[in-house]
Amino acid sequence: MAVVETHRPGDIKPGRPRARSRSLAAASGIGRFLVIVVLTYLGLLAVTFFIGRVIPVDPVLAIVGDRAPTHVVERTREELGLNKPLIEQFAIYVRNVLTGDLGTSVLTSNRVIDDIRRVFPATLELATLGTLIGAVFGIPLGVLAAVKRDSLVDQIVRVIGLVGYSVPIFWLGLMALLVFYARLGWTDGPGRFDIIYEYTITPVTGILLLDTAMAGEWDAFRNVAGHLILPSALLGYFSLAYISRMTRSFMLNELGQEYIVAARAKGISESRVIWRHALRNAAVPLVTVIVLSYAGLLEGSVLTESVFAWPGLGLYITNSLQNADMNAVLGGTIVVGSVFIGLNLLSDLLYRFLDPRTKRR
User: Fold this and answer.
1) CA separation for the pair 148, 248 (Å, rounded)
2) Which residues form the ABC transmembrane type-1 domain (predicted)?
3) Same structural domain for residues 263 and 182?
């Protein structure tokens, strides 16, 4: 006679269904995240593709010239696939971009991806230093403005931020060159370094402060740092204006919470309440602000690089646009857009990681 096993309700382990549901929720969240990434990137590729098709510059004539024979123009158009239906052209465009083929630059005759590898470290170095300056000075200023709300200190910090938002960055750059370089001689001028160091600096990472320090070329290091001061300070001021304003807003919100009142009632020192309690909670959204500010400097340093003749991605795109080199323009736009999407997604992940409340959603 078969023995039928029976289980009482208490014998069933409740952890397994709960763990399975958590795994399914995590997998669903990852799936949604990947779908958002793919759709966002396809949208970026679609925008750059159709921009390249609606602009009044014929990419074929930009390659072969205005006086090329008709049969040469038609053969080049066929080789580039521009005689195919638009949807097929877009499919080819997506395939090429995903394989790293951004076309060939008419201006330099190099592959666009190779040109971008050469110029992007300069933009990365400038934007990174500018973000560090903005965070190091912007966060304390924002905290101070929130603590001294409506005081003279608060008004000064708000005016500093307002000027950073309102005054055109290219005008500030020109004034900085005129005052600190041309008149006072406190800093070096445009470019990344003086011409005498062109053959003494061996680019390894492309970030010259790091390359010269690793090589022990301290004269070159000081020269590179001297050229970095003005453009990085300018971008740092722009970043400071944004970060200090957001820090002030986050801190005002935290200082009005009940846990701050309770901490003060327990006799905890004011400095600890501000820096250990309020700022710690405000740091969660503040990390997102700093990451997005960094992305903004990476994509928005075109005017700064133009003013200071900084050989980065912004100046490369500007020169390419002036010479109707659309492969380089669109390639640079794709890289900038990809960086912005990546940093935006990174900020979202950091927010979810730092804020436990989002993990339960």
Assistant:
1) 10
2) 120-351
3) yes
Q: Are 350 and 338 in contact (CB under 8 A)?
A: no
User: Beta-carbon neighbour count of residue 332 at 10 Å?
Assistant: 27
Last residue of a domain, one of 98, 128, 162: 98
- The token pair at 56 is 């009044």
Distance between CA 36 and CA 70 in Å, rounded?
44
Using alpha carbons, select from 254, 283, 272 the residue that is nearest to residue 354: 283
Token pair 């666009």 is at which residue? 112
Domain boundary among 98, 128, 153: 98
| Domains: count for the chain | 2
* 297-334: pLDDT as tens digits: 887 677 788 888 888 888 888 888 877 777 888 888 88
Helices (H), 83-111: 86-98
Q: Are residues 168 and 90 part of one domain? A: no
Indicate left, alpha or beta for 26 from its phi (over 0: left) and psi (-120 to 50: alpha).
alpha
Q: Are residues 228 and 298 in the same domain?
A: yes
End-to-end CA distance of the chain: 51
SS3 label, residue 104: strand
What average pLDDT score do residues 342-361 get? 70
Contact between residue 231 and residue 308 where contact means Cβ atoms under 8 Å apart: yes
What is the 3 state secondary structure string of 258-326?
A: HHHHHHHHCCCCHHHHHHHHHHHHHHHHHHHHHHHHHHHHHHHCHHHHHHCCCCCHHHHHHHHHHCCCH
Instruction: Looking at the structure, tell me whether residues 48 and 179 fall in a common domain.
Output: no
Cα–Cα distance, 282 to 268 (Å, whole number): 19
Residue type, 47: V
CA distance 179 to 274: 38
pLDDT band, residue 42 (cuts 50/70/90): confident
Q: How many Å apart are CA 49 and CA 89, to the nearest integer? A: 9
